[in-house]
Amino acid sequence: MKTINNFLSYTSTGLYCAAGDFYVDPRKAVNKTLISHAHGDHATPNSGTIYCTPSTKQIMGRRYKNYLRSKFIEINYRESFQLNDVKITFYPAGHMLGSAQIMMEHEGIRYLYTGDFKLQYDHSCEAIEFVETDYLITETTFAHPDHQHPDPQNEIEKLNEITGQNILIGAYSIGKAQRVTKLATAHCSKKRVLIHNEIIRFHEVYEQAGVNLGNWESYRLQEFKAEDNCIYVMPPIWFNRFSKNNKVYKVFATGWKKSFYRSDSLLHISDHADWNDLLKMIEHTKPKYIFTLHGDGTHLKNYFEGKEIDVTILN
Question: Which pTM does this prediction carry?
Answer without folding.
Answer: 0.96
